[in-house]
Amino acid sequence: MPPRLSLLRSTRAILARPSPLAAATPCVLRCTTIRGFADSEKPPLKPNSPNQYVLPPASEEAATLGEVTDKGGPEIEQGVPVREILKRDQEGLEKAPQVIREELGQITGENGQASSSSLAAFDETEVINRGHKYALPELPLASDANLKYRYDPVVQLVTNLMMRDGKLSVAQRNMSLILQHLRASPPPLLNPERPLLPSAPPPTHLPLNPTLYLMLAIDSVAPLFRIRAQKGAAGGGTALQIPVPLGLRQRRRRAVEWVLDAASKRRSRGSGKGGFAQRVAEEIVSVIEGRSTVWDKRGAVHKLGVSARANLNFGRRR
C-alpha cells in the first residue's frame, strides 16, 4: 500500500512570493524652440548654438505685435541723438566717422577745423531750448520770481501772523483749512451800511476764489492811518493825538491783527486741530457780511483821526 500523506506532519512551509513589479519609466517631455507645422515632413531643426532661437527683445516683439494689430508699437530706433550731440561737440565731430561727418556737412580740412558755413547754420537758441518741456524764462528775472514769493502776499502775511513759536507748518495747515472753509461756504449776504471796496466782485463769485475772498475782507476793514500819541505836546503833560498815514502792508497787518483778535474771542464749536482755523474763517465771513466788531474798531480809528486832523502840522518847521 502506498504510504499515507499527512499534511499535518509536513514541516516545510509554503512561501507565497509575489512577482516583482516592473519599474515605471519616467515620462520626459522635450520641447523644442521651433514648432513645425502639422503637415511638415521634415524633422525640426536643431539649434547650432544655445542663443540661436531666442526670443526677440521686448521692443521688437512689441513693434511686431503693433504691426499685426494695427495699433502701433514703440519706436525701436529711438536712441541717443548722436548727430545732435556732435553738432555741439566740435572735438567729438572731428573724431566721428567720415559717414556721419559727410551727412552733417562738417568735413574738416587739413587744418582740422570746421567750415565757416556750417558754423553759421548752427542755431544756438535751438540748442538752449532743447530738452526743456517749457520755454526758458527771460532774463533778467522779475523781482518776485523767487521760491519765497510763490504764495499770494496776503496769504503769506496772514500765515506769518498766525504762526506761534516758529511752527510754520501748523500755520500753513490752518491757512489751508481757512481757504477750504471759504471755498465751501455759501455766498455771503452783503450789508449796504458797511460797503466793501468799490472794485469788489459780486458775492456769488467770492467762494470761487478763496484768496480773493480773504484779500477783499482784509482790505475792506484795513485802516487808512493810525493814531500816534505825542506826550506833553498838548501842554500840562497831556498827550496830543496825531494821525499818521499807513502803507499798504501796514494797513493789512493792522486789519489781520484785528481779525485774529476777534476770532480768538469766538466760542469754539468743537475740539481738534482745525478749531482755530474755523473760527478765523467764520470771522472773515462775518467781516464780508458786516457783522464783525472789526468794523467798529476801524470806524473808531477813522473818527479819532478826523477829529485830530488839525494836529498833522505839529512839529514841522515853518
Notes on the protein architecture:
Helices cover 40% and strands 4% of the residues. It contains 12 helices and 2 strands. Helix 8 (168-184) crosses helix 9 (210-221), helix 8 crosses helix 11 (275-289) and helix 10 (248-264) crosses helix 11. The longest helix is centred in the middle third of the chain and has 17 residues, at 168-184. The protein is elongated. Mean pLDDT is 78; it is low at 106-112 and 118-123.
Write the topology of this structure.
Layout: H1 58-69, H2 82-88, H3 90-94, H4 98-104, H5 116-120, H6 124-129, H7 153-162, H8 168-184, H9 210-221, E1 225-230, E2 240-245, H10 248-264, H11 275-289, H12 294-307
Antiparallel strand pairs: 1-2
Helix pairs in contact: 7-8, 7-10, 8-9, 8-11, 9-11, 10-11
Task: Quote the distance from N terminus to C terminus.
Answer: 177 Å
Strand pairing plus helix content: what structural class?
A: mainly alpha
Which residues form runs of ≥5 with pLDDT under 50? 106-112, 118-123
Whole-number average pLDDT?
78
The arrangement of helices and strands along the chain is HHHHHHHHHEEHHH
Instruction: Specify the biggest β-sheet.
Output: 2 strands, antiparallel
Oligomeric state of the chains present here: single chain
Number of helices: 12
Radius of gyration: 45 Å
Helix content: 25-40%
Side by side, the strands of the main sheet go: 1-2
Number of strands: 2
Question: In percent, how much strand structure appears in the residues?
Answer: under 5%
Shape: elongated
